[in-house]
Amino acid sequence: MPLQELRFLYIQRNSYGFMQYPNAALATLKNLQKLVIDGLHSPANFGPELRSLRSFNALEFGTHGGKCYLVNITETIFENIPYLNYLALEKCNLKEFHANVYKKIPHLSSLTIHNAGQAYPLFQALEDLKGLQNSSLKSLSFNHMYHTSLPCVVLKAEQARYLHNIALEELDLSFNHITFLQHDFNEKLPRSLKRLLLRNNAFGAKYALLNGLSFLTELIELDVSNQNIDTRPHKLSAKIQESSDTCQCRAKKQDRKELEKYFSVHIDDFNISSLAARHHGHANVTYFTPKNTVKEQFVTVKSHFTLPPKLRIIRASRYTDFGLELFAIKIKTKHSLQEIDLSNSFMAKWGYGHILNTIVTADLSQNYCKYIQSHFFPFNNSLRSLNLSNNFLGPSFADDENGNIFHELKFVNSLDISTNLIYRLSDKFLTGLEQLMYINLSDNKLRALNISFATNRHIRFINAAKNSISWIWRQTRVNLDDIAGTHPVALDLTYNPLPCTCEGLEILEWLSTTKVSILNKDFLKCSRQAAHAEDIGNLELRINELQRQCMSTTLAVVLISVIAAVLITFIGLSLIYRYRWRLLYLRNVALTKLLVNHKAKEPCDFAYDAFIAHSETVHSFVLGELRQELKIQRGHKLCIPEVDFMPGSLLVTDILAAVTNSMTTVVICTPDIMQDTWAEYSVKMALNVEHFSRRKALFLILIEQETLQESHSQDQYRNHREEDPLLDYDSALGKDLLLIKQRGDFIEYPLPGGHGVTEAVRKNFWDRISEKLGHTSNVNQPAYVDDQ
After folding, report:
1. pLDDT at 170
2. Fewer CB in 10 Å around end: N or C, the chain?
3. DSSP 3-state helix, strand, coil percentages of the chain (rounded to 5)?
């Protein structure tokens, strides 16, 4: 018959109307190894016809969507299939389970009972293991074996008395609402255990759990993920709760001491049912009560800690604070821990303690973490694969200008930092990742790919999809091209608004010519200025289109740039011309300090009372009458260029030094004063002294035309008038001297022999000038220019 070679038979969901198993038909399948079938009501049994099926070693009831109507597991149900080594019962509403049934299947190596109903709880299932004492059972799985109305399950020594003598390698007690493993229960666990699965329970005391398993010398994997307290829809009566040992969720005295070894708090007796009611709707409950209520804080374990020596894998996803406490402990013995899964555990800060040096693979994704310290990854660590996806590390990464966070991860070859709200990364961000091969930057907010890959010579794949990347740094492109010359490198830029603009043309050209493999090149997106992203289409055609558009744009930009440069130059030269005297003053001040041997004077300590600035037309007047009246008769310290300047010296610096070291610069104003080069220079320097020192430094002596006639030869004055017959005296003074005159800092020279000019008038004239100048030895504070 063709079916005689059949090895695996799935006939679940075909039991309607059947009272017995199809023993005769099954007996013909000589090579049958595995049978998946619906469990039938008693007295249905497997008949003696099946004894000849020596290969029949796996039987499953109710799995793969099947049905299980088994209520009673009798002693003889499996006596005709003694070669079973795998038995699974799922969703069987068991009420009676004969313990001796296991003796009929002595070769059993794997037993699975899930969802056995309210009448067959975990405690009863563990009690029925007495039929498996010293058996060959290696794998045991009891899931969903608790009453839905029970507040908790605490496992004690009596529940493990039959486990102790079974050489189990794998124990799965997931989905049982276990809140605590008492210390004596842990002591009874078989030393041969390699995998311990406690998923989807309600553990709270993390240290006691780990440290209590330290004697399991063969343990390799521990799975304590998804530790929550569920909200129960039903409640048992108070009478049942009081009478049932399974509901008395109290820590024994010795367990309290065990916990207190690892926590700086006092552990009181607790009742999970009351706590569950108090924390209705919350995912986690703290199973200890401090004597004094304090704010929530990270617990630092002061005691040394012991892990099972061969433990390599810890899975603790959705186990709040387990990871933070694991990072904070001090392990006193040698351990082998290499892989941890602490995802989805609400660890908002990573910096209290650090990852153990032996860890090779770490999954810290979905932790809502927004802060990470550089010492979290210690020196000489062993990390190879690191998953930090689905956190909020963007701000921390943006602040890491020198790549300090990942500086010690020299052996990591796979890094996932996707979905972290990353908006900026420094060019040195990956500096420490020397062995990096795969990096996932997808689903972030990066606007530019500006990371240097100079130290990441082993990089092979960069996933930068689903960002806002519109630019790729030139150095990044150079690095990737260099690496792609030694081995294949792939880059994923899909779902990024690449620039379809003239500015971004070089990016598109690089994508078209680079040795880097651009994934889905024809399905890339690009955007024009403020327009929405569109399909880039054929990359070569898009580049040709942009090149044509940008030629005219480039010409316009060049013309505008030239015009702008001319305008800027013109404006700059205009400003220089406008402030030429001020700039000249500042330059000459510096030059004076270098060339002229004058000590800096305080504002109230000047070398001269006055510096006399004049044109050549009043040379005789200055050396004659003015010098006689002010210097000789009235004792003023005057600086007269013809007398006080050293021949051969630099007039530019001498005049500036004289102006700055004189309390007042007296300008002998004649119509030709501003036509004399050095007189004009003296006036301009004095005006700058007023501007920068905020004091009045100019005083004018006005000499009319008639005075010129009397003071000089008629021919000289006549020549002057002939050159400019329309000369007006005020306009000849210029704007600067006219402003000085308008503010009142001037005096008119009395014309000798003029109407009403007597010797007394002339004497009063020189006395007023003397009073205005003052003497340097009597000056206490110079007058300051009005801010207006």
Report:
1. 97
2. C
3. 35, 15, 50
For residue 27, what are the contacts with CB-CB under 8 A and spacing of at least 6?
A: 47, 49, 50, 52, 53
Write b or e for each residue in 629-651: b if 16 or more Cβ atoms lie within 10 A of its Cβ, otherwise e.
bbbeebebbbbbbeeebeeeebe
Kindly give, in sequence order, each residue whose CB lies less than 8 Å from that of residue 473, ignoring residues fewer than 6 positions away.
427, 448, 449, 450, 451
Segment 629-645 shows an average pLDDT of: 90
Domains in the chain: boundaries: 599-778
Contact 348, 320 (CB under 8 A): no
Tally Cβ neighbours within 10 Å of residue 405: 22
Checking if the pLDDT of 519 tops 60, the result is yes
pTM of the model as a whole: 0.64
- As a whole number of angstroms, the distance between CA 51 and CA 40 comes to 20
Q: Are 146 and 183 in contact (CB under 8 A)?
A: no
Rounded to the nearest 10 degrees, the angle between the axes of helix 677-693 and helix 580-595 is 90
CB of 308 closer than 8 Å to CB of 336? no
CA atoms of 110 and 79, how far apart (whole Å): 17
Q: What is the mean pLDDT of residues 550-562?
A: 79
Q: What is the pLDDT of residue 36?
A: 96
In DSSP terms, which residues pair with 698 in a beta bridge?
665
Return the pLDDT at 783: 40
The enclosing H or E element of 73 equals strand 72-73
Query: Looking at the predicted structure, is the pLDDT value of residue 265 above 70?
Result: no
Decide if pLDDT at 56 tops 70.
yes
Chain mean pLDDT for the chain:
82
**DSSP character at residue 100:** G
Looking at domain 599-778, its CATH class is alpha beta
For the chain, give the percent of residues with pLDDT over 70. 82
Q: How many residues does the chain have?
A: 788
